[in-house]
Write a structure and sequence with these properties.
- With 84 residues, the chain is mostly helical.
- Helices cover 61% and strands 0% of the residues.
- The longest helix has 26 residues.
- It is elongated and about 85 Å long.
């Protein structure tokens, strides 16, 4: 028997899928236990998304950034002029 035959025998998917009893995954068992104690609230299949807060325009953000850069440049120039 070659190594490949041993590998196929160990991981024979057809044999595993034909099993009469299939154990649920650990996550499925965890959720089932949690839901037995606290059942989830009913929710529609595709709920409407929550309203999205309106963002400022990109122009406003650009103006704020350019304004901050200008203030920093002016402060640096003022400090250099005072130290000279």
């Amino acid at each position: 028997m070659t190594e490949q035959d041993g590998w196929e025998r160990e991981f024979d998917h057809a044999w595993a899928n034909s099993a009469e009893h299939k154990e649920p995954s650990a996550r499925a068992r965890m959720l089932a236990a949690r839901w037995r104690e606290n059942p989830p609230d009913p929710a529609p299949f595709r709920a409407d998304p929550a309203p999205v807060a309106r963002r400022r325009s990109s122009w406003a953000s650009t103006a704020v950034v350019i304004g901050c850069v200008a203030v920093v440049m002016i402060l640096i120039g003022y400090v250099q002029m005072r130290s000279s």
